[in-house]
Amino acid sequence: MSANAWGARALLATVVVATALLAGCARDAAPQSTFVLLDGSKKTTADLQGKVTLVNFWATSCTTCVAEMPKMVSTYEKYKAKGYDHVAVAMAYDPPAYVVNYAQTRKLPFSVAIDNTGAVAQAWGDVKLTPTSYVVNKKGEIVKRYVGEPDFAELHQLIEKLLAES
């Protein structure tokens, strides 16, 4: 077999495997996890059912996270009445006092959780990079993952599409 034929087969195999993996990711169920909110209450993955939800892993020390947060707030405000929710999960290394101060001074309107053990980040694919966000549909399936700041126009289109689904 020539090097070109071997290379073409290897490329085809890679594309097939990648497509299969991505197809699986597109509809993976959100992992079962419990979010401990700043007020001490808890929200579980099951509580997200029936809503389109953005689960956003962030940290007060992450400049991109802080820069995107006003856009996260405006996205939440724009869609919350239509069945959209947002859970901002602060990373385990983020001091809880910093998270509380940030959420209060910025008047974050959505649920803010502190992942003090790292179990939530672990359950959601061992999240290490911030920001990392997951869009979860009404059925509780992950339909999109963003590492870094999302393209908000694209995110809004996806939210609108998912909100329109029954």
From TrEMBL:
Pfam families: Redoxin. The keyword Transmembrane does not apply. Residues 1-29 form the signal peptide. Keywords: Signal. The keyword Transmembrane does not apply. Gene3D superfamilies: Glutaredoxin (3.40.30.10). Residues 24-164 form the Thioredoxin domain. This is TlpA family protein disulfide reductase. SUPFAM superfamilies: Thioredoxin-like (SSF52833). The lineage of its organism: Bacteria, Pseudomonadati, Pseudomonadota, Betaproteobacteria, Burkholderiales.
